Amino acid sequence: MKRIYMDYAATTPTHPDVVKAMKPYFADMFGNPSSIHSFGRESKEAIEQARDKVANLVGARNEEIVFTSGGTESDNFAIKGVADANKKKGSHIITSAIEHHAVIEPCKFLETQGFKVTYLPVDEYGMVNPGDVKKAITDKTILISIMHANNEIGTIEPIEEIGKIASEKGIYFHTDAVQTAGHIPINLKELPVDLLSMSAHKLYGPKGVGALYIRKGVQIVSFMHGGDQEHRRRASTENVPGIVGFGKAAEIAKSEVEEERKRLTVLRDKLIKNILQIENTRLNGHPSLRLPNNVNVSVEFIEGESMLLNLDLMGIAGSTGSACTSSALEPSHVLLALGLSPEVAHASLRLTLGSETTAGDVDYVLEVLPGIVKKLRLMSPLYKKK
User: Fold this and answer.
1) How far apart are CA 265 and CA 359, in angstroms?
2) What does the pLDDT look like over 18-75, one tens digit per residue?
3) Which residues pair with 159 in a beta bridge?
């Protein structure tokens, strides 16, 4: 049976060149990078070379990149680290209602520690209004955290405008760029962003490694305590093979980002156009200001999980939202924030494209999906009531 993977927003396959680059650091060059002997020095040099490549991907300086265990740690580090370091200045944080749980949950935790958090609404496309950000700022605001692009609906947020507002007010601005780094161009020499989160496994690197960009001068305290690794920013012996892999993945992504963005946009638009021809379907997210690989639709009167199972039987892998909450029974907080009813939110299907996606794959999905929808609607009491 043909197998088609359309869940690249959840994770990507590790690029063969990335695997090749990592392999020597599991057995041959295994030294602890904190050791001063030759084994340690070669591991340390490999980390610094990878740091250069990750920094180059986003237009940062080498010393502004701190390696972490992934996007979740990077988000926690940014939010909790800034909050702790600046609590004498203020106790107010601004974020949005559609952030990844790796941002929302740290914010909820900080609320138990005496911080106040404003969760901004979004419009019907999932877009944060910069004017709302400006209005929410108080003399106690120390951090604004708005994601670069949403992981479920693909909407790209106006972070340049929001960053300018934050900069003018002297407030730190963090953005979760886990879905955008390596997929759309990022230049931190121009973007007014103080902290930016990344994850290797979203751009064809290994799982279990990420990075936090910390602009020089940002007041932040360590999230992990122990040794002096990562310029005393993040304790723990570095994951050398993972970091090497991240560096290689960043190097590849940098060289291919524009060409791949154009290719995937064509496939994305074809999918959206044809899926919306199915009766009672709607596009979730912005129609044009969205990630080049993201398709999120609600197919009314049926459950998203039922669509996924039937697609899987036909060899097609997709999702109903964030992989981190795929086992949850509650409807997506992102879709509810758009104003969708719980029933329509439960009817969502997310297809995300990537390096191995072909025009033939898209054609196959478009051939199979209408029949699945028809079958499930005939079984649906909601559709019969219509």
Assistant:
1) 12
2) 999 999 999 999 998 988 998 899 999 999 999 999 999 999 999 999 999 999 999 9
3) none
Give the β-pairing of 195-199 and 172-176. parallel
Query: Which residues, at least 6 apart from 310, have a Cβ–Cβ distance to it below 8 Å?
Result: 372, 375, 376
Compute the residue count for the chain: 386
Q: CB neighbours of 361 closer than 8 A, spacing ≥ 6?
A: 4, 6
324 classed as catalytic: yes
Q: What backbone torsions phi and psi does residue 34 show, to the nearest 5 degrees?
A: -85, -10
Residue in 221, 289, 324, 366 annotated catalytic: 324
pTM for this entry: 0.95
Q: Which helix (H) or strand (E) holds 119?
A: strand 116-120
Closest CA to 157 of 165, 146, 145, 168: 146
Distance, CA of 331 to CA of 164 (rounded, Å): 34
Nearest-angstrom CA–CA distance, 31 and 43: 6
Pairing of strands 65-68, 210-214: antiparallel
Domain with CATH 3.90.1150.10 in the chain: 4-12+257-385
CATH number for the domain whose boundaries are 16-252: 3.40.640.10
CA dist 27 → 32, 38, 311 (Å): 12, 15, 41
Does the 4-12+257-385 domain belong in CATH 3.30.930.10?
A: no
Write 311-315 long-range contacts (CB < 8 A, 24+): 311/365, 311/368, 311/369, 311/372, 314/1, 314/368, 314/372, 315/1, 315/2, 315/3, 315/4
Q: What residues have CB less than 8 Å from 180, skipping those under 6 apart? A: 148, 149, 156, 186, 291
- What whole-number distance in Å separates Cα of residue 104 and Cα of residue 145? 10
Within the chain, all domains assigned CATH 3.40.640.10 are found at: 16-252
